[in-house]
Amino acid sequence: MTGYYPWQETHWRNLAERLAQDSLPHALLLHGPSGTGKADFAAEFARSLLCQQNQADGLACGRCSACLLYAADNHPDSHVVEPEKEGGPVKIDQIRALIADIGLSSHAGGYKVVVVRSAGAMNIAAANSLLKTLEEPPAKTLIMLLTEQLSRLPATVRSRCQLLRFNMPDSVIAQNWLAGKLLENGGNPDAAQDLLAIANGAPLIALADAEKDRPALRQSLLEALAGLAEGRLDPVKVAGEWLKLEQPMPIKYLHGWVSDMIRLRQVPASFADNIEYKKVLQSLCGDVEVQKLYIYLDRITEALQLMTQVNPLSVIESLLIHWANMPKQKTIMQG
Asked: Residue 90 in contact with residue 121, Cβ under 8 Å?
């Protein structure tokens, strides 16, 4: 990606203006649902901070030595922290190494930029280790934390960052962007609306689904959840079917759907542009208390971490048995 996505323009302009006025915060917490491009935005802003010849709109030039180093993942003032394994934790040793690196002088004499992906995956020790740096950051250093759920981070960490919320984009903007990408990739631009509906309006998820021909798979997984909720399907048998799929894809989908169920309970208006998906979520979760959904979401998060450590079948079975036994009203899949 070069540049930011069209639905991110306001965030970009605000930060570019603050950079021009030398008033950037020392830490940003980029949060919001998956598929909105938080990681790409953070990477692009990091590139712009390190660029030696920024353009008028604040974007990096792409030609200077700093941009070339960044493109090669070799810029000494760019630091990325993420779990060592997908679904695993961000460990204290990783944060300690980061703190040691950013405590040194900038190699290029400008900004040092840190991006902590999946910041919610930091264990308590790692979060506490980062806290002191957030309280007393080195000069000319920007730390960007990325998370889908603010609740996954300690309040002490959240309070020391400026929050930057990435909501689902306007449906027209998202559809126009996706249609252009589909056309560019030789696909059918007329499929953009349906793809976005399946992906709950998340354009990057919709594009990934289109590239991997996943819409039908997502629908079949949703139908399986409905069958489990209604008692029509056996969770052990369904787990066996899910195990045949690319892992941990079905569990990541499950995480996204339960997150959306929680969001539906707390901010129903956020689904105003996707009525059909809203009906699906309502039919799936019935009258389950939001606290129980949070507990289940925590179990899914733990399962994602365990997938690489134990027999994945037992992990999937445990999740689906839990889902099948959650008290719900009778569910009816729609759409």
From this structure: yes
Render 74-135 in DSSP notation, one character per residue. --TTEEEE--SSTT-PBPHHHHHHHHHHHTSPPSSSS-EEEEETTGGGB-HHHHHHHHHHHH
List pLDDT tens digits, range 4-14: 999 999 999 99
Taking the model in full, what pTM does it have?
0.74
End-to-end CA distance of the chain: 33
> What structural domains and CATH numbers belong to the chain?
6-165 (3.40.50.300), 214-324 (1.20.272)
Cβ distance 116 to 145 under 8 Å? yes
Q: Which pLDDT tens digit goes with each residue over 180-238?
A: 999 998 888 998 988 887 787 899 989 988 888 777 788 899 999 999 999 999 999 99
User: What is the rounded (10 degree) CA torsion for 35, 41, 42, 47?
Assistant: 150
Residues 6+ apart with CB under 8 A from 319: 239, 251, 254, 299, 300, 303
Give the tokens for residue 228.
């489990």
Integer-rounded Cα radius of gyration of the chain = 21
CA-nearest of 245, 259, 162 to 202 is: 259
Q: Give mean pLDDT, residues 275-283.
A: 87
**Residue 326 to residue 323: CA distance in whole angstroms:** 5
* Burial annotation 18-45 (CB, 10 A radius, 16+ → b, else e): ebeeeebebbbbbbbbbbbbbbbbbbbb
Which residue(s) pair with 112 in the sheet?
141
